[in-house]
Amino acid sequence: MRITLAIAFATIVAGISSSAMSRVEADSLVASGLRAYAAGDHAAAQVALDSVAHVFNSAALQFDLGNCWFKLGDVSRAILHYERGLLLQPGDADLLANLALANDQVKDRLASDGGPVLGATWARFRGGDDPDQWSRRALFASLLFFALLCAAMLIKGRTPRRASWILASGAFIALLICIGFASMRHDELIRSEHAIIMEPKVEVRSEPRTGTKVLFVLHKGTKVAVDQDAEGWTEVRLPSGIVGWMPTGSLERI
Predict the structure, then answer these.
(1) Among 186, 233, 237, 248, whose CB has the most other CB atoms within 10 angstroms?
(2) Could you tell me which residues come within 8 angstroms of residue 204 by beta carbon, excluding any fewer than 6 positions away?
(3) CA gap 31, 169 in Å, rounded
C-alpha cells in the first residue's frame, strides 16, 4: 500500500479552525503520526491522525487513516475511512486499490450497486479534485456569463453582438451544469446514505425490535445503504433491494 502520511497535512490546510486546533498543532500531530507509522507503531499513528481528522478533512488524511486501521487488523474501520476518502475524491486510484484489498477480507459478498459504464472516470469527473471544485467552476461561469452579457449589450455591430449573445448563452448553460454538480456534491457530503457494519456479526430483522424474524445476517466490513432510523434501529438496504432492521450501534455511517 502506498503511504502518503508525509503529504497529508499539505492537502488539508483549507478551513482551519484556530479555536479548535492551530496549524502548528495539526502539523505537529501529523508529523508525530508520520514518525510513528514509519517506526511501525500504527496505533500511535492512528491516534495522532484521528486527532487531526476531527478538525480537518481530506481524501489523503482518510487514506492514511484507512492504512493505519488496515495495519492494525481492523478491516471494517479501514473500509470506512477509504469510503470517506472516496466521498471527498471520487475515483481516486489509490483509494480504490486499497479499498479493494480491504474488501477482499470481508466475509459477505454482495453484488455491486452498479453505476455508469465509465465507472471511476465518471466518478472523478463528477467529484472533482476536491469538494469545492464545482462551486468554484460555478463562480467562474457566472462571472463569464455576466461579462459576456454586458459585452452583448454594449458592443456595436450585428455580428460581434450576435457572437456575444451565443457565447453568453453557452456560459449560462455551463453555469447551470456547474450548479447542478455542486449541489449534488454538497448533498453527497452532508447526507450519510451508506454505512459500514462494525460488529463481527449482525442479525438483520424484519421489524425494528428484538425478537422479530431474522431475515439475514451481515458481518463486519459490509457496506449497506441506510434508509431510515427509528428509536435505536436503522433500516438498511442491500444492493439487491432487500431491506431489514439492525441496531444503530452495529454500523457507522460513511
Answers:
(1) 233
(2) 214, 215, 216, 217, 218, 236, 244, 245, 246
(3) 50
Residue 39 has which C-alpha cell?
A: 517506526
In this prediction, the residues of the chain whose per-residue pLDDT falls under 50 are 2-19, 116-117
Altogether, the residues listed in the chain come to a count of 254
What are 143's three cell numbers? 462571472
Residue type, 58: S
Question: pTM for the complete prediction?
Answer: 0.72
Q: Which CATH superfamily is domain 5-103 in?
A: Tetratricopeptide repeat domain (1.25.40.10)
For residue 128, give the DSSP letter. Answer: -
> SS3 of 45, please?
helix
Spell out the CATH class of 194-253. mainly beta
Pick the closest to residue 25 from 52, 4, 3 (CA basis): 52
DSSP state, residue 117 = T
Give the whole-angstrom CA distance, residue 59 versus residue 55: 14
Q: What's the CA gap between 16 and 22, in Å, rounded?
A: 7
Estimate the crossing angle of helix 75-88 against helix 93-103, to 10 degrees: 160
User: How far is C-alpha 252 from the geometric centre of its chain's CA atoms?
Assistant: 14
Edge-to-edge, what's the strand order for the sheet holding 251-253? Answer: 214-219, 201-205, 243-247, 233-237, 223-230, 194-197, 251-253
- What digits encode the pLDDT tens for the residues 146-157? 999 998 888 888
Task: Quote the pLDDT of residue 31.
Answer: 86
Report pLDDT for 14: 39
All three cell numbers of 108: 459477505
The tens digit of pLDDT for each residue in 160-193 reads 888 999 999 999 999 999 888 888 777 767 777 8
d(CA 13, CA 43) in angstroms, rounded, equals: 24
